[in-house]
Backbone:
């Protein structure tokens, strides 16, 4: 497993070894030992999610109120996507910064999203399937969104993509509005929650 720290504090890219043969391939996108060595944490799985999107679909920027907080481990099982992490944690050394990872069904890269950050992705092909492992169950009242098209963040939406957004994402608030309303997670609290989970 190759590991690369991303530009957002605590976010990590994982590239597993892929084993192809005449039958197809085998790969382990998540490996607990490699994850713990890279992050110092234990991934406590509460729910797994699966999404399928056509080319041009843009989902996000989604984040969870902290507390309760939520971390994610995401990979692309089919198709291709540009996966984006945005640091929304007030007090973080990388607050307001983002990084992206090209995910596809060839290299099967994965990304760890630490507690308190935002997640968005752009489907680059039809029938793009994203698989998520998350550390808390879905509670609608705890799930918030910031506009993926906010010019203040200037996320790397490809020029040849005409973004297809849900109504929720079309109506999402700006980054500055979320900050003004006190909705952004705090870095120290996010770190505390992640480490508490890991010590259970």
Residues:
């Amino acid at each position: 497993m190759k590991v690369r720290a991303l530009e957002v504090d605590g976010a990590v890219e994982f590239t597993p070894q892929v084993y192809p043969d005449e039958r197809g391939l085998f790969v382990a996108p998540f490996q607990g030992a490699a994850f713990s060595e890279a992050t110092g944490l234990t991934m406590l799985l509460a729910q797994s999610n699966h999404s399928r999107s056509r080319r041009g679909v843009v989902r996000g920027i989604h984040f969870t109120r902290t507390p309760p907080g939520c971390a994610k481990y995401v990979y692309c099982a089919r198709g291709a996507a540009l996966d984006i992490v945005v640091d929304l944690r007030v007090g973080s050394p990388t607050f307001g910064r983002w990084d992206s990872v090209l995910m596809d069904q060839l290299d099967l890269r994965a990304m760890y999203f630490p507690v308190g950050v935002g997640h968005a992705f752009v489907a680059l092909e039809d029938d793009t399937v994203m698989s998520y492992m998350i550390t808390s169950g879905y509670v609608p009242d705890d799930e918030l969104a910031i506009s993926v098209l906010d010019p203040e963040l200037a996320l790397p939406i490809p020029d040849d993509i005409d973004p297809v957004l849900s109504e929720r994402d079309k109506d999402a608030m700006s980054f500055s509005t979320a900050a003004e309303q006190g909705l952004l997670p705090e870095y120290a609290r996010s770190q505390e929650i992640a480490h508490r989970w890991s010590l259970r």
User: Anything to note?
Assistant: The mean pLDDT is 96. The chain has four helices and 13 strands.
